[in-house]
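S1.2 Input.
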Amino acid sequence: MTGSGDSKCLIIYFQTAEACDACVGATHPITDIPFFLTKDNIMSYFKKFGNIASCCIYSRKNAKVQQARIVYDSAKSIAHFDIQWAVYCCSTCFRITPYHYTVEQKSSRREFVATLTQLPPNTKDIDLAPSLEILVLRPSMFLSP
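S1.3 Output.
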């Protein structure tokens, strides 16, 4: 599977739909995790959504943040992440996109991104949450006539 430079596809056949759901449906990646957070920090927060079967923390070369892959023992544990796109843990916002999403669904979660500049030193994303709630609840007040 090496050498061509093309994307590879791994096909896994399951004997039952339950086995497929247990493997794929209960897994989700978590991104934007700062390096000061450990696997124990991540697991202690995400165990409130269900029983964690496995958790893997990793980072790519020269990455500024870590990523995690959490597998729950039930697909029901990640059902609410269809609506909730991010969570706050330790004053940090993590993005969550279930693995079973299509490419279009994943890209729609990245479609609208805001870059805030010239913020005061030591400003954390949790400090901006009240301001962002106003934008979500009343977006028309920021639109030009």
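S1.4 Remarks. The beta strands are 27-33, 52-58, 66-72, 86-89, 92-96.
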